[in-house]
Amino acid sequence: MRLSPGDEPARTDALSGMNAEDSARAAGAGDLSRSGEAIEFLYKFLYSSRMTMLHDATELSVTEAAQRGVARLVADAEQGNELVVTRRHRPVAAVVSIRRLEELEAAASDLRDLALVLARSVTDTGERVSLDDVLTAFGHTRESLAAMPDDE
Questions:
Q1: Same domain for 64 and 129?
Q2: pLDDT digit string, tens, across residues 28-58
Q3: Residue 37 contacts residue 29 (beta carbons within 8 Å)
Q4: Looking at the structure, do residues 36 and 46 belong to the same domain, yes or no?
Q5: Region annotation Disordered: residue ranges (predicted)?
Q6: Antiparallel, parallel or unpaired: β 58-61 and 83-87
Q7: Which residues pair with 86 in a beta bridge?
Q8: Do 48 and 62 have their domain in common?
Q9: 60: three-class secondary structure by DSSP
Q10: What is the pLDDT of residues 80-133, one digit of tens each?
Q11: What is the CA radius of gyration of the chain?
Q12: I need a labelling partner for 28 at 20 to 30 A (CA). Which of 64, 84, 131, 144 fits?
């Protein structure tokens, strides 16, 4: 199924966009059809209007930004205006409010989590390894681990 950037999943969480059904679908362990659904969901999520990094950003050159001055740029950002500073018509910097920066950081974290869920979904064979087997592979036992000093 081909999706266009205007297609959007149901909105439930402003940052992750995932409701319980979407989360369960994205986490479908090892089932390739569910993995396809998860990838389709990720595509929709990434290209939805929520994931536009800067909303209606005003573009200005470095010269124009210098003429405005730092105080005015900061005041604009505090009022919710997003500014993209360009040099030779290429974006080199952005000025956003701290609230928007926190939203972008949270969205990036959500995307990392979603990517991990998708990677696990696609690669999960159902095989599980015991802790003792992992410790043995690294040359340890439960006792040797317990004897290690704490890093404080």
A1: no
A2: 434 445 566 766 776 676 666 455 567 788 8
A3: no
A4: yes
A5: 1-29
A6: parallel
A7: 61, 91
A8: no
A9: strand
A10: 999 999 999 999 999 999 999 998 888 888 888 888 888 888 888 888 899 999
A11: 23
A12: 131
- Cα separation of 99 and 133, whole Å? 46
- What is residue 130's DSSP assignment? -
Euclidean distance between the first and the last CA atom of the chain, given in angstroms as a whole number: 52
- Cβ-based neighbour number of residue 142 at 10 Å: 10
User: DSSP of 97-144, one letter per residue?
Assistant: -HHHHHHHHHHHHHHHHHHHHHHHHHH--S----HHHHHHHTT--HHH
Which residue would you say has higher pLDDT here, 93 or 24? 93
Q: Are residues 138 and 150 in the same domain?
A: yes
Is the pLDDT score of 77 beyond 60? yes
Task: Quote the domain boundaries for residue 82.
Answer: 55-95
* pLDDT score at 13: 36
pLDDT at 6: 43
The domain spanning residue 83 has which CATH number?
3.40.1620
